[in-house]
Amino acid sequence: NQAENATLRYETVPLPVTVSKDTEKLNLDARAKNVKEVGLTQLPAPAAETPSAKTFSVDIVAVHGLGGHPFKTWVSNEKGKECFWLQDYLLKDLPGARLYTFGYNSRPFFSRSVETIADYAKELIDDLELERFSLETPSLRPIVFICHSMGGL
């Protein structure tokens, strides 16, 4: 078991092609409803515009930070256009990858929550085990974590 760190940097976030600002907002709102506030959510891959010769057998898990949200943290707004870049761009660049976002109560320090970061970590591990392993075959796909701010704790 070897751990490696990497940084993925986009110089500019590509803007989505939309019919109108209203259509764009409806599209984001509809996708936001499919993301669970708490727990692991697998994001469906967008339809491929052209078939790719290369596929990536990897699971990617995005974890938001304190005060964050499993969907809103990953929405970019550039030049008045919004996109959910995890799904809109990352999955297009990595065909075959499975992408998840993990949500948790990210305001424990500002509320009366009795849960700890260790509780959230245990929940994430449990959710990943349920998602990735079946009784017949354990998943051998590597996992990449994208952590925003203190989501890396």
Mind explaining what this structure looks like?
This protein is an alpha/beta fold and 153 residues long. The chain is built from three helices and six strands; from the N terminus they run αββββαβαβ. It has helices at 21-33, 85-93, 117-132, and strands at residues 39-43, 59-63, 75-78, 81-84, 98-103, 143-147. The strands form two sheets. The chain has a four-stranded mixed sheet. It has a two-stranded antiparallel sheet with strand order 3-4. A hairpin with a 2-residue loop joins strand 3 and strand 4. The chain is globular. The two termini are 20 Å apart. Residues 13-23 have low confidence and may be disordered.
Give short descriptive properties of this protein:
four-stranded mixed beta sheet; 6 strands; 19% strand; 25% helix; two-stranded antiparallel ribbon; alpha/beta
Q: State which percent range the strand residues make up.
A: 15-25%
| Total beta strands | 6
Task: Please give the radius of gyration in angstroms.
Answer: 16 Å
Termini separation comes to 20 Å
Q: What is the number of helices?
A: 3
pLDDT averaged over residues = 75
Low-confidence parts: 13-23
Helical amount among residues, as a percent range?
10-25%
Strand order across the biggest sheet? 1-5-2-6
| Sheet with the most strands, sense and barrel status | 4 strands, mixed
- Secondary structure category: alpha/beta
Q: H/E series, N to C?
A: HEEEEHEHE
What is the quaternary state of this protein?
Answer: single chain
3D shape: globular
